[in-house]
Structures are given as structure tokens and as C-alpha cells.
């Protein structure tokens, strides 16, 4: 499109209450948890929080969002310059068209700024709960080493509850943060195998990201070109899961495993399409080419 917005990551927002004074993260966020967290209740954790992984994703996400912000700010500066020149030249129709584009980019910049502020707010709340959990864990360990008394046992029970609540709040925030990760558009670019790929060979590629799956079949044609039954798939980024890629060769009713690899998505949070060349076999005799656009 003329305003350059079609390639931007999808911005997803959720309402929040302004109060940050309550003890529970969930009580101060008027936010419905994602489906994966709907069953999260007191004493029933789905998984342990992973602060180091969350930190890596947060830093990559914030960097990517700032790249989009800088790109659109540069576009706004360019359009504003043309807007002034057009006003002097008094080409009315073109002037109003530029004015419309400028307003569109300005609105998108405001959305990006709001999006970044919400991501930062979530991560700040996550870090607070992480520090509280670490402090309660250390105190729990100290009390467990001291002589057992009624007071120490009561303190241990209370500390256990604090650790559990902080852990649940961290899991909840992880789910809320995933809402803000946008989308990965993955394009199939074909297999690279040199002498390993022959006309008539058929392959199946299976890509998994958490519960999301993409299964596609392809064939090597007589002119060495490749045809695939699907070319693109949209994946929702996940804080904890990596891309798992499995390639099998189809020979009649039999299937032969070519290789299974995993691919981290940490580098995909950027404005430019990322070309990926993955070694499917250990020696790299067959590779898979993909393109990821965030």
C-alpha cells in the first residue's frame, strides 16, 4: 500500500486498569488470560516460568517494535517534507492525498508507541513478581534450616503461599505478553540438495511451533524445479517453544526420515524478511529454505 503499513506486525491491545497498588497481578489487570492459561487456578500451574527466556524475547520484541517505529517516523518525515512542497505548488488533490497518508502514519505511530509501553509495563510487572518470588524462596530455605517451631512452621506455610502466588502471576504475565508478539508469516522456498535431489523425488515437510502445525508436500520436477501444495503459513509466536522442522522422503507407501532440526525464533522480530537456510541432514547435504516475515 502507499502508506507502507501492510508489512507491519499486527498490533494487539488489551485493556488494563491503572491501579498498580494491589498485591496480585491478575487483580490489577482487567485482562482475560489467553486460552492456554484459562485453566490457571490457585495451586494448579501449567508450567514453571522461565525468566531468562522471557527476558530474551522481551529484548528482541522491543528492538523489533522500535525498528518499526523508526521506519514509520522516517516515512512521516519524508511525507511531511513533500506535504510542504505540495502546499506551495498548490496541487490540491495530491496535497489532500498526502495529508491522508500523513494522518494514517501518525495514527500507526501512536499505536506502536502504545504497544511498546504495554510491553514494557508487562515486563516490569513480571520482573517485580520474579524478585518477590526469589526473595520468598530464599526466606523459605532459611526457615527450613532453622529449628522447627510453631512460628517457623507458620512462616513456612505463608512463604510457600507467597512463592506459589508469585509463580502463578508470572505464568499469567507470560501469557499476557504472548498476546503482543504479533505474527510470523513463514514462506516455503524449497529444498536445496544438489545431487541428493532428483526428478520425481517427493518430500514432506512438517513445521511445528508449540501446538501450531504446518504439513506440506512437494515434488522435484524434471526441470529441477519444485512444486509444493502450500507456500505460506501464519504462526503465532510463542515465548517458550522453538520451531521444529521435520523432513521425510516419500517413496510409494514408505517414508524415510531425512532429518529433524529445531530453530529459535528470537531473531525473527525485525522489520526485514529473514531468509533461513536450515541443514536438515547432519552433513548438510539437504537444506531447507524458508523466509519469515514478522
TrEMBL record:
TM segment ranges: none
Secretion signal, residue range per the UniProt entry: none
Any Pfam family: PL48
FAM65 N-terminal domain mapped to chain residues: 17-294
Matches recorded under InterPro entries: FAM65_N, RIPOR3
Family stated for the protein in its record: Belongs to the RIPOR family.
Protein name (Swiss-Prot/TrEMBL): RIPR3 protein
Species this chain originates from: Cettia cetti
Lineage: Eukaryota, Metazoa, Chordata, Craniata, Vertebrata
GN (gene name): Ripor3
Amino acid at each position: 500500500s502507499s502508506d507502507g503499513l501492510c508489512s507491519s506486525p499486527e498490533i494487539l491491545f488489551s485493556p488494563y486498569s491503572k491501579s498498580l497498588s494491589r498485591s496480585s497481578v491478575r487483580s490489577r489487570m482487567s485482562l482475560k488470560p489467553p486460552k492456554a492459561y484459562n485453566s490457571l487456578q490457585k495451586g494448579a500451574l501449567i508450567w514453571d516460568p522461565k525468566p531468562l527466556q522471557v527476558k530474551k524475547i522481551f529484548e528482541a520484541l522491543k528492538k523489533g517494535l522500535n525498528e518499526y517505529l523508526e521506519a514509520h517516523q522516517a516515512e512521516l518525515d519524508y511525507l511531511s517534507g513533500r506535504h510542504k512542497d505540495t502546499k506551495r505548488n498548490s496541487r490540491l488533490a495530491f496535497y489532500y492525498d498526502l495529508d491522508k497518508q500523513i494522518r494514517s502514519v501518525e495514527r500507526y505511530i501512536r499505536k506502536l508507541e502504545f504497544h511498546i509501553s504495554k510491553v514494557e509495563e508487562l515486563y516490569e510487572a513480571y520482573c517485580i513478581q520474579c524478585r518477590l518470588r526469589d526473595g520468598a524462596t530464599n526466606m523459605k530455605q532459611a526457615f527450613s534450616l532453622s529449628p522447627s517451631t510453631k512460628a517457623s512452621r507458620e512462616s513456612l506455610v505463608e512463604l510457600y503461599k507467597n512463592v506459589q502466588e508469585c509463580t502463578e502471576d508470572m505464568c499469567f504475565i507470560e501469557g499476557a505478553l504472548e498476546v503482543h508478539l504479533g505474527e510470523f508469516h513463514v514462506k516455503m522456498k524449497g529444498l536445496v540438495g544438489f545431487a541428493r535431489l532428483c526428478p520425481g523425488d517427493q518430500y514432506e515437510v512438517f513445521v511445528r511451533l508449540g501446538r501450531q502445525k504446518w504439513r506440506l508436500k512437494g515434488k522435484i520436477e524434471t526441470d529441477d524445479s519444485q512444486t509444493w501444495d502450500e507456500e505460506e503459513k501464519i504462526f503465532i509466536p510463542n515465548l517458550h517453544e522453538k520451531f521444529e522442522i521435520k523432513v521425510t522422503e516419500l517413496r510409494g507407501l514408505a517414508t524415510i526420515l531425512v532429518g529433524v532440526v529445531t530453530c529459535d525464533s528470537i531473531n525473527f522480530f525485525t522489520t526485514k524478511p529473514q531468509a533461513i537456510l536450515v541443514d536438515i541432514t547432519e552433513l548438510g547435504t539437504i537444506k531447507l529454505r524458508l523466509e519469515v516475515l514478522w
